[in-house]
Design a protein that fits this description.
Blueprint (H helix, E strand, L loop, with lengths): L6 E9 L1 H8 L4 H7 L7 H9 L3 E7 L2 E7 L5 E5 L5 E4 L5 E9 L2 E8 L2 E10 L2 E8 L2 E9 L2
Antiparallel strand pairs: 1-2, 1-10, 2-3, 3-4, 5-6, 6-7, 7-8, 8-9, 9-10
Length: about 150
């Protein structure tokens, strides 16, 4: 079922992404001081990230899935096996423990750090890749179209 996600996807629509990024920046200061973690996504970074139209490339080599994100803001790449926890450094420099599973035809990517959790759910709907990002009550939906 992962095969449906393979290919090159270009962002065509984004809703509430800035609100999602703001929620990542709302980690209580006492936690930040105790653990020396970055304060989350700042205003300038949020503005640049919100205006960027990234391309996502999803590939598969054996049991390993490679997810690449290319943009004028930053290029990222993660490799993982379904159901196996891995260390990830996010685009906003959070150091997280991630697990990606396939659940009902959806790729569910859970990132955990410092008592926080965010979920990135990718699904195919009408030939489009829909990415739903959730952190607390903040939800962003980003829509990608497959390139030829």
């Amino acid at each position: 079922m992962v095969d449906a996600f393979l290919g090159t996807w270009k962002l065509v629509d984004s809703k509430n992404f800035d609100d999602y990024l703001k929620s990542l920046a709302s980690i209580p200061m006492s936690i930040l001081i105790t653990f020396s973690w970055p304060s989350g996504v700042g205003f300038t970074t949020r503005q640049v990230a919100s205006m960027t139209k990234p391309t996502t490339i999803i590939e598969k080599k054996g049991d390993t899935i490679i997810l690449k994100t290319h943009s004028t803001f930053k290029n990222m790449e993660i490799s993982f096996q379904l159901g196996v926890e891995f260390d990830e450094t996010t685009a906003d420099d959070r150091k997280v423990k991630s697990t990606v599973t396939l659940d009902g035809g959806k790729l569910v990517h859970v990132q955990k750090w410092n008592g926080q959790e965010t979920t990135l759910v990718r699904e195919i709907n009408d030939g489009k890749l829909i990415l739903t990002l959730t952190h607390g009550s903040a939800v962003s939906v980003r829509t990608y179209e497959k390139e030829a």
